[in-house]
Amino acid sequence: GNAQDGVGNTMDSGEIIIHGRAGDIVAMSMRGGRIFIRDNVGYRAAIHMKEYTGKVPVLVIGGTAQDFFGEYMAGGRVVLLGLNLRKDERHKAHYIGTGMHGGVIYLRGRVEEYQLGKEVGIRELDSQDWETVGQYVNEFSSHFGFNSAEILQEKFQKLLPVSARPYGKIYAY
Asked: What count of Cα atoms within 13 Å lies in the side-chain half-sphere of residue 144?
């Protein structure tokens, strides 16, 4: 079934599997564990995710996301698969990664630079990235009955922060 807003808020460990969609602020301040969502998520998913003492939170979304996806991310791994998008249809979210200063977003499908926050850059996946994405897609597929080989045939992009301190100039230190 579906899930309401705030799933995985401050999650430290464990696993959540949602056989539907989830609302806004999914994985807010998540610092460990794994969340797998079959369909779409609402606004501000993955906001302020962070890595904490060796824990790396993981969020895998089968559909797409609304605006401010990955806002203020400080760590973690997010995979946005866009399985419900038509061929060559781009993700709809704007301001993706605004304020992002850590972690990585792996995005399957199209996103244009104007949809990104100014703190994010687009890169191609390297062999280590493909290994990581493959692991998460295999796990996702085993939960929901998808064919991971088909999912991995499509183009992926890697979104990374371009600065470790995007708002440093507005503070005294």
From this structure: 27
